[in-house]
Design brief:
27% of the residues lie in helices and 30% in strands. It is an alpha+beta fold. The protein has 2 domains: 130 residues, 3-Layer(aba) Sandwich (Rossmann fold); 148 residues, Tumour Suppressor Smad4 (Sandwich). It has a 6-stranded antiparallel sheet. Strands 12-11-10-7-14-15 form a 6-stranded antiparallel sheet, with no helix packed on it. The protein is elongated, with a radius of gyration of 20 Å.
């Protein structure tokens, strides 16, 4: 059988010999949000110059202040072979969700504050390096994830009062120490008093300070398995136990801490007395008092060098 007839053989486009041999990438659309965490106002022009060096038909779209979702949908309607996103975590997550498992390949480049999805796929915070590696040696891969109501995540979700610290962190990054102090005081008031109730795969109801859900992309415990999420119930009783948990996270495997209960799940239900604060792939979200989490085996298709540079983290 010739290589062209072998479905397992790399796809080589003669017109794009410098590009990755693992996928046909003739057209590239790159979305840039110059206001996100680490892109900067000159990112659009720099992206145009970089893509001009490659044998592709490239389009760079600088996102404006209007509806991002509509702009992303319009870009997807053009059916590029690759949609690259240089923006924050929320914009990258929206693009992946709108593309879905049957849409074009997605390259979520590191352009936000945390860039969790980008770090998991590319292992770098330099978007030029990530884009270059993608065009040179990218391999298509299905990325699984989780869905909570109308929200999605592809790396990790944290549900419960620890998620309240995320707005304080963002306020410090923006230089708003007054807001940071306000958010920190709110988080401290909720600490160890705003526990959530959860059920994993229809099991018994339990209580925890927070429930973390890790996707196969970053969880070491799943060993690359694509058939579930790793659930970690975090239940420190007081500040001393919380510091011990943090120590284990820094020096060893946090799963060994007695305040952590882990399991592999496909569904989870979480309830609280009030709305549930959450962090989804680094972005703060306020859920309702009841939330249902479902595993998505094929959420979208990414183009990234293999193997991915996933890093286990909560």
């Amino acid at each position: 059988m010739s290589p062209a007839a072998d479905p397992a053989a790399p796809i080589v486009d003669p017109a794009a010999a410098r590009l990755t041999p693992h996928a046909v990438v003739r057209t590239v659309t790159l979305l840039v949000n110059p206001r996100s965490g680490s892109t900067g106002p000159g990112a659009g022009e720099r992206a145009r110059a970089l893509l001009a060096e490659w044998p592709v038909r490239a389009q760079v779209i600088v996102l404006g202040s209007e509806d991002f979702e509509a702009q992303i949908a319009a870009a997807l309607a053009g059916k590029p072979d690759l949609l690259a996103v240089l923006a924050g975590d929320g914009t990258a997550r929206t693009a992946a969700a709108l593309a879905g498992p049957d849409g074009p390949l997605i390259a979520p480049l590191p352009g936000g504050t945390m860039s969790m999805l980008s770090r998991a796929l590319y292992g770098t915070t330099d978007w030029v390096e990530a884009l270059t590696a993608t065009l040179e040696a990218g391999v298509p891969r299905d990325v699984s994830g989780g869905k909570i109501g109308g929200h999605v995540f592809y790396c990790a979700a944290i549900l419960g009062s620890p998620a309240l610290w995320a707005p304080a962190r963002e306020a410090v990054r923006r230089g708003r120490l007054d807001l940071a102090w306000s958010y920190a005081r709110k988080a401290l008031r909720r600490a160890f008093g705003g526990r959530v109730r959860y059920r994993l795969d229809g099991g018994p109801v339990r209580r925890a300070e927070a429930l973390a859900l890790l996707c196969p992309l970053i969880s070491r415990a799943l060993n690359g398995s694509e058939d579930g999420l790793e659930a970690a119930a975090l239940s420190p009783a007081d500040a001393a136990e919380a510091f011990r948990l943090a120590y284990h996270a820094m020096t060893s495997d946090w799963r060994h801490d007695p305040a952590v209960l882990t399991a592999k799940v496909r569904t989870a239900r979480v309830e609280a007395r009030s709305r549930i604060p959450a962090v989804l792939d680094g972005e703060s979200v306020l859920l309702g008092p009841r939330a249902r989490v479902r595993f998505q085996p094929r959420a979208f298709r990414a183009l990234a060098p293999a193997p991915p540079a996933a890093a286990d983290s909560v």
